[in-house]
Design brief:
By secondary structure, the chain is of the alpha+beta class. The chain is built from four helices and seven strands; from the N terminus they run βααβββαβαββ. It is 32% helix and 33% strand. It has a seven-stranded mixed β-sheet with strand order 1-2-3-4-5-7-6.
């Protein structure tokens, strides 16, 4: 990963981060028929204002960079002293399948450990079996699912302890 770097993003990078999230989530939105009308909260439709709100809550935001170009994004929300949640994790499509997502997950685990945490949780589209399998290969355990009336998919919940 020498040509790549993960670092905390600044307020000035929130517009670019929102763009990376939208582009990264667009492939899943297309695959599962997500639209702003049926799933406005999906990353494919995120705006900078949402990131401003999340940053103001104290969430940690990281960009994956190739040189000075942001090509990935990840947000960590502290749920309690031991538990953090990964949100909005994505890699731009042209950079996928190179191990960069695993690098971001490993980075998240290191950040959580340094903050005294012991567990990372994530919610995802349960029907996305390819992504679920990927998380399992990266140390996550499937906990169960929940169906929400306002979402056109089932939410699957996973966690990793370390």
């Amino acid at each position: 990963m020498s040509e790549y770097m993960i670092k905390e993003i600044t307020d000035n990078e929130l517009v670019k981060a929102a763009s990376v999230i939208r582009e990264g989530f667009q492939t899943v939105a297309q695959e599962f028929g997500l639209t702003v009308e049926n799933c406005a909260t999906n990353g494919a439709f995120i705006k900078k204002e949402r990131l401003i709100i999340d940053k103001a809550k104290g969430n940690y935001m990281y960009g994956l960079y190739k040189g000075d170009q942001m090509i990935g994004f990840m947000e960590l929300e502290k749920k309690n002293n031991l538990q953090f949640e990964i949100e909005k994790i994505t890699i731009l499509p042209m950079y996928r399948n190179q191990g960069l997502g695993k690098n971001m997950i490993d980075y998240a685990k290191d950040c959580v450990k340094k903050a005294g945490g012991r567990k990372i949780i994530i919610g995802m589209i349960e029907e996305n079996s390819k992504l679920r399998d990927w998380y399992e290969r990266n140390g996550f355990i499937h906990l169960g699912t929940k169906k929400f009336d306002f979402l056109p998919f089932t939410v699957g919940y996973m966690e990793a302890y370390f």
